[in-house]
Amino acid sequence: MKADTSPADPGDANALHPTYALDDTVHQRVRLGILSIAREAGQVEFGFLKNQLAVTDGNLSRHLKVLENSGLIAMHKGYEGRRPRTWVSITTKGKRALEAEIQALRRLVHRLDAGEP
Amino acid sequence: MKADTSPADPGDANALHPTYALDDTVHQRVRLGILSIAREAGQVEFGFLKNQLAVTDGNLSRHLKVLENSGLIAMHKGYEGRRPRTWVSITTKGKRALEAEIQALRRLVHRLDAGEP
């Protein structure tokens, strides 16, 4: 029965773990996928996201709505021939948020690599 | 109005995005923090986790329970002097799951770095 570590000073922000820097809105698995694909592809169609991320329509819609409400993506409805389509693009704010997430992940992976037993 | 990409073949698993390889149980921000700290520290006390991750007691307890139920951590209750304490340690299964998460994050960051505009 032992504590290998003593409690951090609650007032010291530097004592917080790197995962504290992660933003749940961006970090969530499906949303991280949406933002990544949208950044790669420029503009991406709903059905493509659905296939790539292997999610249901309802699940994808829910996550798109969260990202849209946070201003990280823009959605655009239209037609391809006679078929209704929804296109998704990443906003400037979304690009910045994704970049911050990548930086935080890089720091976390670096720290975990350094501390590997 | 355009689709920059055509739908992936739904039967082709290789067409799935790297985020598909992430496991929600491990990827969730607070749980990723718990597993990381537990791996670094060997055995870690509840209050230390709470400070490091800046979460409430209830929030931390909920995430610890998820990890314990998945067999990724073990919890041990005892006393330090007269004060009740809960210690958390990562299991072998937890170490493997964290390693898989890190590998998946590394692939994701690499892909995003490569595709940077």
Describe this structure in words.
The structure is a homodimer of 117-residue chains. Chain A has one domain (23-114): Winged helix-like DNA-binding domain superfamily/Winged helix DNA-binding domain (Arc Repressor Mutant, subunit A, Orthogonal Bundle), CATH 1.10.10. Helices cover 52% and strands 16% of the residues of chain A. Chain A has five helices and three strands, in the order ααβααββα. At the A-B interface, α2, β1, α3, β2 and α5 of A face α2, β1, α3, β2 and α5 of B.
Structural class of chain A: alpha+beta
Any idea how many domains of chain A?
A: 1
Q: Give the name of the CATH superfamily of chain A.
A: Winged helix-like DNA-binding domain superfamily/Winged helix DNA-binding domain
The total of beta strands of chain A comes to 3
Oligomer: homodimer
Average predicted local confidence, pLDDT of chain A: 88
Low-confidence stretches of chain A: 1-10
CATH class of chain A, please? Mainly Alpha
What fraction, in percent, of the residue positions of chain A are helical?
Answer: 40-55%
- Largest protein-protein interface: A-B, 56 and 56 residues
CATH topology of chain A: Arc Repressor Mutant, subunit A
Strand content of chain A: 15-25%
Count of individual helical segments of chain A: 5
What is the string of SSEs of chain A from the N terminus onward?
HHEHHEEH
Architecture of chain A, according to CATH?
A: Orthogonal Bundle
The major pleated sheet of chain A works out as: 3 strands, antiparallel
Largest sheet strand order of chain A: 1-3-2
Shape of chain A: elongated
What value does the Rg of chain A take, in angstroms? 18 Å
Distance between the termini of chain A: 21 Å
